[in-house]
Amino acid sequence: MLKHHVKVLLTEQEVDKRIQEIGEQITKDFAGKTVHLVCVLKGGSFFMCELAKHIDLPVSLDFMSVSSYGGDTKSSGVVKIVKDLDEPLQGKDVIVVEDIVDSGRTLSYLMEMLKDRRPASLTLCTLLDKPDRRVTDVEVKYTGFKVPDVFVVGYGLDYDQIYRNLPYIGEVVFDEEEGK
Ligand code: IMP
Ligand code: MG
């Protein structure tokens, strides 16, 4: 692992406040319905748990885990299901909860795949969006924050599997880059 440190980009208070707002918006938008949250592991897990607490409707949850073929997310748009959902999506109001939309490749593939399972509705909710990096169009209904093209960690996002537990969003600053 390269020498680095983590700089706070979005504080715990900012993140929590924004998640509460999204939860309230979802509560309004889906009034009278049950929402079925689909968490994309592992990154979406912290966001989904916090979000679910702020949705004042009946909520059910499911989890899935995907990885790109060959292990290189950047070069491949095809995702492999590592862990599939436990429940069918048919007839449900499904909200896919992700940590970040970067190139958009993973999500656009995943959303197409889930659409085939005939949910009543299918929307995407992401904590972070890096619009500068988008190569594949993907429709995002709820976005927590737009972030610049930097490597971010915390609130579910990792660098080499660590930092997921940070209660804020941090930027990984590689020490040799500093002062550049
Ligand atoms: P995609 O490029 O939109 O397909 O995003 C693929 C995945 O890359 C995301 O779901 C994240 O798990 C990961 N990712 C993208 N940008 C970052 C980042 O800045 N920090 C940590 N993980 C990231
Ligand atoms: Mg992810």
Fraction in helix: 10-25%
- Overall 3D form: globular
Q: Flag low-confidence runs.
A: none
User: What fraction strand?
Assistant: 25-35%
Structural class: alpha/beta
Number of helices: 3
- Number of domains as seen in the coordinates: 1
Rg over CA atoms, rounded to whole Å, is 16 Å
Strand order of the largest sheet: 4-3-2-5-6-7
Q: Enter the CATH topology name.
A: Rossmann fold
Name the average pLDDT.
93
Element order: H for helix, E for strand: EHEHEEEHEEEE
Tell me the total number of β-strands.
9
Q: Which cofactors or ions or other ligands sit in this model?
A: inosinic acid, magnesium ion
Question: Can you name the CATH architecture?
Answer: 3-Layer(aba) Sandwich
Largest sheet: 6 strands, mixed
Q: In CATH, what is the class?
A: Alpha Beta
Distance between the termini: 20 Å
What does this structure look like?
The protein is of the alpha/beta class and 180 residues long. The chain has a single domain (13-147), classed as Rossmann fold (3-Layer(aba) Sandwich), CATH 3.40.50.2020. 21% of the residues lie in helices and 33% in strands. It is built from three helices and nine strands. It has a six-stranded mixed beta sheet. Strands 1-9-8 form a three-stranded antiparallel beta sheet. Helix 2 (45-53) links the parallel strand 2 (35-41) and strand 3. Helix 1 crosses helix 2 (45-53). Inosinic acid binds next to strand 5, helix 3 and strand 8.
Short description:
By secondary structure, this protein is an alpha/beta fold. Helix content is 21%, strand content 33%.
SSE inventory with pairings:
Layout: E1 4-10, H1 12-29, E2 35-41, H2 45-53, E3 59-68, E4 79-83, E5 93-101, H3 105-115, E6 121-129, E7 142-146, E8 152-153, E9 169-174
Parallel strand pairs: 2-3, 2-5, 5-6, 6-7
Antiparallel strand pairs: 1-9, 3-4, 8-9
The structure holds inosinic acid and magnesium ion.
Residues 40, 43, 98-99 line the site of magnesium ion.
